[in-house]
Amino acid sequence: MPLRLLPLLVCLATFTACTAQQDKSPKEEISTNEASSPYTFKTPSPDGTGKYYMGREISHVMGHLAANWLERPEREREENVSQAIENMDIQPDERIADIGAGSGYYTFRMARKVPQGKVFAVDIQPEMLDILNERIEREDIENVAPIQGSETSPNLEANSVDLVTMVDVYHELSHPREMMQDIVTALRPGGRFVLLEYRMEDSTVPIKRLHKLSEAQAVREMASVGLRLQENIDNLPWQHCMVFVKE
């Protein structure tokens, strides 16, 4: 073979290898990616994202335009928020993270319980953080600190909080595994995670199905990140009040 043909053959072999790699079908690529992911994808239901975690379809997020609904006057009567906060057994010097704090409906009520502590109000929407900051400045509140979270992390320091709360937020998390792993890291030894979610088991609760969560599903998902159900306090009109502890 003439030596001048060797470079051409090398280039041809390289091109063929690259083409074969590019011809890998999208289906194969998706399968490869999903094999290492805790999530699966299907056609979305009317209220869902089509993204599934441990058999549960993740719902769409309620945006900042619904902030007024969070502050509705009838919320105390419908959800007995005062009782829910009592259920958390908050101590005066505790550091609390309110994940998905929104307009701060729970945040500022919990802040009154920790005069020597602090509440970190975590949200991924800048508009919600603006609402929080405006109230902090207006009322000169010193023990609430808004934090910009992400879809995968609350951006809290390790071993920095005694209590983490999520109120009707968990079912909307786009990356629940990653978020909960970071939350467990942020909890101090013996720390508590209080999860409030509308009861899937109760058909009379007037909330869309994908915005509800069953106790069995919650226990399964929390166990996967090292949280154990200590108690499900059954004294709220519509919601589970599940207290998990860090193993």
From TrEMBL:
Residues 22-43 are annotated as: Disordered. Keywords: Methyltransferase, Signal, Transferase. SUPFAM superfamilies: S-adenosyl-L-methionine-dependent methyltransferases. InterPro entries: Methyltransf_25 (IPR041698), SAM-dependent_MTases_sf (IPR029063). GO terms for molecular function: demethylmenaquinone methyltransferase activity. This is 2-methoxy-6-polyprenyl-1,4-benzoquinol methylase, mitochondrial. Residues 32-43 have a biased composition (Polar residues). Its EC number is 2.1.1.163. Residues 96-191 form the Methyltransferase domain. Residues 1-20 form the signal peptide. Coiled coil: none annotated. CDD domains: AdoMet_MTases. PROSITE patterns: PROKAR_LIPOPROTEIN. GO terms for biological process: methylation. Transmembrane segments: none annotated.
